[in-house]
Amino acid sequence: MPGEKGVLLTWKSGNFRPKVEPQATGFILVRTIHNWYNQRSMLVIETSFRRSIMTMKTGKLSVTRGEFNVRDRGNQDGFPVIMLHGWPESSYCWEGVAEFLDPSLRIIAPDLRGLGESERTLDVKAYQKVELARDIIEIADALKIDSFFLVGHDWGGIVAQELALMIPERVKKFVIMNIPVIANTKGTMEARKIICAAGGVPYWYQYFQMQPRLAEAMIKGNEDVWVPHFFGPKGQDGTIPPEAIKEYIRCYSIENTPAAGASYYRSVALDAPHWAAMAGKRFTMPTLYIHGSEDTVIIKENLNHIEECFDSIQVESLPASHFVQEEKPKEVAELMNKFFS
Length: 341
Prior knowledge:
Layout: E1 6-12, E2 15-20, E3 29-38, E4 41-48, E5 57-63, E6 66-72, E7 79-84, H1 95-100, E8 105-110, H2 129-142, E9 148-153, H3 155-166, E10 171-177, H4 185-197, H5 204-210, H6 214-219, H7 223-229, H8 232-236, H9 242-252, H10 257-266, H11 268-276, E11 287-292, E12 313-318, H12 324-327, H13 329-340
Parallel strand pairs: 1-3, 7-8, 7-9, 9-10, 10-11, 11-12
Antiparallel strand pairs: 1-2, 3-4, 4-5, 5-6, 6-8
């Protein structure tokens, strides 16, 4: 990161050799470069003190499908929990939960393709949710992770569902938050009917981003208006930490992010036939659904018939809006701790 003071630590012959870079900007950057398992998989671990509490290290992982930014608690003996964020967030959204989550669990939280600091792919087909799930499987494989708990919120919850149906034998327990269940066609249609009967206003940003070129033309340079809008009053009153929203603005300002972010919605036309074929499928692993009950997009009707999609499902409601894990990190972590134990 140009213009920042840091210590560059490079793995060489078993020793770390520090090199202090010039120019200071007020925080320390530590990078560790280490070859992981093969020449195609390299993890760069960065720790930056941008916020007062940072429970995980961040780093770049290069695999055959691309380059991804990954947060990792680093306790490699802990049982892995892969946590997938939504839009317009990044893996930073799990920092609050990580503070309260059982310290014996190893959190691995990638930035999804096109968001956070992962690569910006401009091919819409790459944002089909089944393709994003394949990204996560390759990340897990590169880190030599076989069995794990899986957590997903918003689009990360859809990606997590795709993954759980692809490799159910590896997902030992499953947590999803504030997202439709892709196999629950009946509940999804009942919720959509209610929202559309009221004019469909909560869906406006989805329709907007589906249009060609509009996101690219109108969001670039206005990220500091665009991103905070979606966090609403909970972002304005500090319930969601201001440093989190600043981080999302920073990441959304990375070149080509408006196009990449919009691709999550533009690819829905490609996702839809696949999801239609999933009607009636069941998730075999024990599952916890945490719902922020004040959400105006994922409403309570989305949970109608949910029990038909799972062999074992526990539903918990918290007084929060869409970004439940950022508004109620302690309560979400407590629910997870009990469920994972």
